[in-house]
Amino acid sequence: MERVFLGKAVMPLGVSTGMLGTIRAQLHLREILSAPGVQAKILSPGGNEVLVNFAAQKFDENTGKLVDDTTLSFLDDKVEKFIELIMSGR
């Protein structure tokens, strides 16, 4: 059996129309990804959870692009941390 996530860097994230729409799913996904036999390298929790809430207010309805500056800045920070996680494994 091939273990394709073993040691691979992953960054769970989610977008929802509500306040906490994907937080439970992300918690469960983190448990699965860190389980024996999977053992992905997960961007650590504690401020690194990526949940874009109230999506209707943050995405342009015509283009589908993220337009909320605060969220864009937040995502830039998390992506930078994810790149650091990837680079630390080389």
From TrEMBL:
SUPFAM superfamilies: Flavoproteins. Gene3D superfamilies: 3.40.50.360. It comes from the Bacteria. This is NAD(P)H-dependent FMN reductase. It comes from Lederbergia wuyishanensis. The lineage of its organism: Bacteria, Bacillati, Bacillota, Bacilli, Bacillales.
